[in-house]
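Record Retrotransposon gag domain-containing protein, 178 aa.
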Amino acid sequence: MLQQQFLQQQEETNRLREQITRLNQMPRTNEIPPQDNPAPLVVPQVPVVRQEVPLNFEVPLAPAGMQANPPVVRKDLLYERFRRMKAPEFEGLTDPIEADNWLMDIQVILDFMGLTEQERVLCASFALKKDARHWWITVQMRRNVVAMSWQDFVAEFKTMYYNSEILAAQQDEFNCLK
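=>
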């Protein structure tokens, strides 16, 4: 029954898109033709169907002449997908090797999930805890993180957690152990 309602709604949507396409193709005039008895506007009553959208759901492209809006990120579904990947948490340790390990681990997961730049930032910020969460809040106060790219996130993260002097000293120490 729900599937039938969904198909009816989809057919109605396609019919309306075709009408809009035809209207956009008509030559435009500044005159509105006079009407003695204009027909009343009829709006079809389409029942609202709530249905869980599968994770691989693809939005059809808009017809020519219509502007397509970017898909809305369902944060709850994104969070569930990310949580199922058992991503490591980062607490804001000052050890640059720990920070580097976390960043590499989180990038592997984000690459596997095939996320957009903004979804990557959103998911990575979910994994920040304790001091790292406080750091992220300060980043949010000074930057528009909604539009932040993954490269910008990594740059901010490295600025905070990669102390090049400590990292070089630890690498020298490691090389001496060999």
